[in-house]
Write a structure and sequence with these properties.
74% of the residues lie in helices and 0% in strands. It is built from 13 helices and no strands. The chain has helices at residues 6-21, 28-43, 47-53, 55-66, 68-77, 88-103, 108-113, 116-144, 149-173, 189-202, 212-232, 240-251, 253-264.
């Protein structure tokens, strides 16, 4: 009895990885991204009220979120800050999504995209989009700083988690400022995923037993699995146990925890 044809499986995986790497993010993947960014503005405190009183400010907030990675990476790399708005089809598509999220008759679009099965599908598409934007950020930085590994990692993180960094700035546009909520103080699971992914994408060729296309595919699948798991279960931050173990001896977290416990007592 013949065993499974591993060569055929490898060939199929290569084809799948290559196809995923060559996928165009516009328009399907961008639509999922724009929906979630506009929903984030809407669900943020005062977001819906702002859309009724100040539509222009509301539109600006959504555009900042939709192109957050582009704006921040352009600022950090010394590129034209207005560059992300030069992609007219993207801006028009994001504006259309903004309008239906906030102003569709009977709020029908919002009700549809927040219906759990639909929302889960949008989440999955968004996570696949995120893996692409991380790699895009790394490659964008590599063109400017070919040997700047730290810069490439930073821009990769911004590409994948830029909306988290932009959140406070879009709040500032609508007159709300909450600097204590920034991602540096309170890193999210998404930020940690982007950090790990960006590091992997910057590793020299040959360090990993897979090529860049396969790494991109596996990164996207892993992000989808994490998102679905966190959404459907009560599982907390999967990185916390590792962080707690590492931080205790390295950063003196044990002393801090002991001091906090003593203070409560």
């Amino acid at each position: 009895m013949e065993g499974p044809d591993l060569g055929a499986f490898s060939f199929g995986l290569d084809d799948l990885a290559e196809a995923f790497a060559s996928l165009s993010m516009f328009p399907l993947f961008e639509i999922a991204h724009y929906i979630l960014m506009c929903q984030a503005v809407r669900s943020d405190s005062g977001g819906l009220t702002l859309s009724r009183k100040h539509p222009l400010a509301n539109w600006v907030c959504c555009m900042l979120m939709c192109s957050a990675g582009g704006f921040i990476s352009s600022l950090l790399l010394g590129l034209p800050l207005i560059g992300p708005l030069s992609k007219t089809p993207n801006v028009l598509l994001a504006s259309a999504i903004w309008y239906v999220v906030f102003y569709a008759p009977f709020d029908i679009f919002h009700k549809v995209v927040t219906f759990p099965p639909v929302l889960m599908l949008v989440y999955c598409v968004k996570e696949l989009h995120r893996s692409h934007t991380i790699l895009r950020g790394v490659l964008k930085a590599r063109k400017v700083y070919s040997s700047g590994i730290i810069v490439q990692i930073c821009i990769g993180i911004v590409g994948g988690a830029g909306s988290g960094f932009m959140l406070n700035f879009q709040r500032l546009v609508r007159g709300k400022w909450s600097p204590e909520t920034n991602q540096i103080l309170h890193p999210t699971v998404v930020l940690k995923e982007c950090l790990i992914s960006a590091i992997l994408f910057t590793l020299p060729t040959g360090v990993l037993p897979i090529n860049q296309d396969q790494l991109l595919l596996l990164t996207g699948i892993a992000m989808v699995i994490v998102k679905v798991t966190l959404t459907l279960t009560n599982v907390g931050d999967p990185f916390k146990p590792i962080e707690n173990v590492l931080c205790m001896p390295i950063f003196g977290k044990a002393e801090v925890m002991a001091a906090e416990k003593k203070k409560k007592e």
